[in-house]
Amino acid sequence: MEPPVGVAPTRSLYKRNPQTVAERQKWSQSPVLPRTRLAYDACLNAGSTAALAVESKIIWLRIVLLNDTFRPLIIKTIDSKPRFRGAIAGFVERCLSEGKACFSMADALASTGLSHSAAKQQILRLKQVVRVSGRHDFFLILSPEDLPMGSPAAVKWLDAYFRWLRQPYYLALLSAAAIHASQPHAVQMVQVMIQGKRRPLEIGRLKLQFYQKTIGIEKVPVIQPSGYPAVVRVSSPEATALDLLRYSERIGGYSRSEETILPMAKLFKVDRLGAALDANDEPALGQRLGFMLEKAGHVKLATAVHRWLSDSVQWTFLEPGASSKAGEKIQRWKLIKNT
Q1: How many Cα atoms are found within 13 Å in the side-chain-facing hemisphere of 314?
Q2: What angle do CA 195, 201, 204 make, to 5 degrees?
């Protein structure tokens, strides 16, 4: 029975009419799809199962902890678990106490048991640790006195760094001359001789300049200066003199080389001079050094250099980089004095 148009039906009319009651029940609820019903039941079942599983684990753990046999083993296992928070900071403090100024990532991982990413995050939070190069997992430790410089002294970590790189090196040129107490000018950067090419490094206020020697770098005589806190390879005074002549154009010219070499001449030894000449194997360097030593009155050393030279040496310039190519000819050393 349909209600009259424009007239609101009474409640009793709908209750007494079965057809109307059926229509109201049909449209009073939204239909529920079968897949929705299944998903709803599955979620209830999964939640119930998860709750039961958690409750079972709690009951099992209580039973184990109350057992006198298992409780000591569990406590021992918990106590022996490594504590990773602050592991790198503790490792750095141990390195400082042992007198170390550097470490590699491999050393840190082996000591702390951290993963590479976790160790890296802890290292980044330490202000007293700086990285040598963005490409290398090798780090420097700043002691309180190193903080203004932003880096430890190169002699504290250079040997460890190149051993980690597995490359030969030695302190050379003006840096080596400064160690031999023959440096009339302040050294603006650390000069290092290596076998390959490498860009300069700048760590804080410390600057390192690299020079390439492709042949004979392992044969160059080196010394370990006394009184240094770490191992460092420094070219001998004789080898330093030959390097200063080889790279004279890059350090200020022949006159700069001469005023640096001559104060070191008192440290020269004949046997080490011969070894340095053999390692470089460049007659032109021997000709310039022999002339310089003879001119300064070091006759014995100059004679040793002249004996090393062969009779077939070629004429060469005293200063290769000079603009002038003319000058007095020095027959004994076959040099053209163009400076």
Answers
A1: 4
A2: 150
Q: How far apart are CA 251 and CA 117, in angstroms?
A: 43
Q: 212 falls in which pLDDT band (50, 70, 90)?
A: very high
The CATH code of the domain at 153-337 is: 3.30.460
Go through 166-188 and write b for each residue having 16 or more CB atoms within 10 A of its CB, e for each that does not. eebbbbbbbbbbbbbebbeeeee
The type of residue at 222 is V
Q: Which amino acid is at 150?
A: G
* Cα separation, 282 vs 245, whole angstroms: 11
Q: Which residues pair with 102 in a beta bridge?
A: 140
Kindly report the pTM of this predicted structure.
0.71
CB atoms within 10 A of CB 334: 16
Q: In what order do the strands lie in the sheet with 206-212?
A: 201-203, 206-212, 190-194, 169-171, 234-235, 222-223
Hey, how many other C-beta atoms are within 10 angstroms of the C-beta on 133? 12
Class of domain 82-149: mainly alpha
Q: What is the pLDDT of residues 154-174, one digit of tens each?
A: 999 999 999 999 999 999 999
User: Where do the CATH 3.30.460 domains begin and end in the chain?
Assistant: 153-337
The phi, psi pair for 48, rounded to 5°, reads -65, -40
CA distance 89 to 141: 11
Query: Residues spanned by CATH 1.10.10 within the chain?
Result: 82-149
**DSSP for 67-101, written as a single string:** -TTHHHHHHHHHHHS---TTHHHHHHHHHHHTT--
Q: Phi, psi at residue 223, to the nearest 5°?
A: -130, 160
